[in-house]
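Task: encode each sequence below as structure tokens.

Item 1
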Amino acid sequence: MAREFRLPDIGEGLTEAEIVRWLVAEGEEVAADQPIVEVETDKAVVEIPSPYAGVVLSHGGAEGDVIAVGDVLVTIGEPGDAPEPLTTPSEEAVVREPEPIVGTLSEEAEVLTSPSEEPGSLPASLQALPLVRKLARDHGIDLDSVVGTGPGGRITRADVEAVISQTAGPEPAPTFTSVEQAPSRAEPEDAGAEPIEEPVVVSDEPDEPAVSLPRSDERRHMTRLRRTIAANMARSWAEIPHVTTFDDADATRLLGVRKALGDRHGMKIPIEALIIKAVLPAIDEFPEFNAELDGDDLILHSARDVGIAVDTNDGLMVAVVRDAGSRSVLELAREIRRLGDGARDRALTPAELTGQTFTVSNIGAVGGGHGTPIVPPGTTAILSVGAARLKPVVYDDDLAIAPVMPLSLSYDHRVIDGAVGRRFMALVLENIEEPALFLAV
């Protein structure tokens, strides 16, 4: 007997996911709990296991398709079973007994569907997911003219993108430098009437050539991860009044400690491990930097879950070091390396990519100096660390050369005043320049 397995909510309020790769092809056997498909959520690529053993009769979508939670992901049955037509909750709601629209008085009230309509003959607007419909709207494409290649004739994103690539963009609308240049909307002249001479309008502005996109331009659809990053950044910038304070730290002793630990234990110590240890005492002293603003309340987190920004081929990701305060430098080093590798391989779980209470961004890893980091939503502060470079410094009126590390601290000015921000930075600076202050605790 064929059984449908629908896309489950795998956490973090998932509403839809994109099919990345099918691990079991149609017609192949699958065991219970065997990974059957990889799907991409807003932040992670997750393997979903099969709940049943049997034969994969049909996939609920092609690689690249976006399906909603509750839609059929895969149909599994016995050898020889025929797959049943796929249905989605939205289609089931549409294909029902006709109901009159509320407010109609006529017995011939308009209905949502007619009894003769089959799932395959639904209007095109009901055979496409919301993201696909939005893509079509943005490009002025009538879905009724698009042939769906998805299950049950559903229109996929690839179908709409194919139409976009085949359709030339509309010509730009004419522009006028004055009202008199606009075409007249007057009624047709009476027969035999003398023609009215329109006044000639001379513009002082030079003529501009028509604007057209170069043929070498490329329209690139953003990945799900890139769209998530964009949405989070826009939300943060719109909601949080940012203030950024800058400083420079003499990293001579910090880099010396890093090398000594690496030589002793035969491993490379990520600079983030030492920066986190330097930041933790400042968080203890100023808990508003490890907090979340919730309406009129400030939630001071007891956990020290520090996010680390990881540069990946797919975009910037923030992996979370849980309970950083209870870990030694070596434990932090191992965890940071594990999270970094997992983020670059898109192998981390959603739980490992969300819920940080403070963030450290090492832009020095890509040669950066000072910056203006954006505070992640749900937190109040982020520290950016640049690359340490040899620069002249002055000690007791003597000139010396030392590795100088740029620091940039952004924070939510709604809950943190400038003076508090400087005190926090001063404590971090003191710890970086003398690691014994935080390594001894």
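Item 2
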Amino acid sequence: MGDHYIPRHYLNGFVGSDNCLSVYDKRSGNCFRTQTSRVAHENGFYTPDKERYLATEIEGPTVQIINKIKEQQPLTKQDKNLFTKYLVTMWKRVPHTKNQLIIKAPSICQELENEIIPLLEEEIKKSPENISFLEKREKEIKQILQEFSVNPPKEAWEYNINPNTAPNILKIIEHFMTWAFLICVEGNNQFFITSDNPVFIFESLGLNKDHSEISFPISKNITLWLTWNRDIQDCNYYYISGQTVKEINNRTISRATRFVYATKEESTILRNLNNSNLQLNILNLRLL
């Protein structure tokens, strides 16, 4: 079994009565049913050290918090702190983020070269006696950046997985945004789904605008909605309509890299799986 980029304990919140998931493959358009141990993993996806870090520092401390949320219990400040780190890690640890680094690597390396090389050339002018040494270093730096732009090292991506590398995002989510747990009653094909890229944000908005928001399905019955709406009681639980469930599920489908996971097969998921015109809306909820 490979490294799970989506934790099994998390996926267990979406299984059906047979303890299996319906897995939708955006690449093939097919759907199949299987156990959580057989999905959302890849051999060598993380180094052993990073796999241990995720298990002991991120997933382990959050298991009881997820169980509390499923049981609609109040969260402590410590719970909220730990779950914020879990959420940000879920944002970073998935194939989508790894692929984004590969895509962005050439531009990142070019920016670094544009910053470093002029400094070296300036140093050459100041210290002509060291020209041989400095020119050698300049050549080495260009070579390293060229190699990284084509094949960015796993260490660079794994370093970024640590939530503490994004302190501003942690602060915004934990202390400034309002948390609302949205609940749907399973029945009439009403249930939340998840994917191999489960944290949704309108990337064009970022997090700082007053209509920015994040949604993160926690189980087939509960989704966390992060908003700037101050009229909502923080960390409270709210029952929502079927239309809102559909909207959140459309977000999940749209951001999936390849796989969508659901408690059972549903025709709407199959129809929307590769719908490039899927309508995504800001949630305008009045929660009482």
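Check on item 2: The chain has ten helices and eleven strands. The chain has two domains: 3-88+167-272, 98-157.
End of task.
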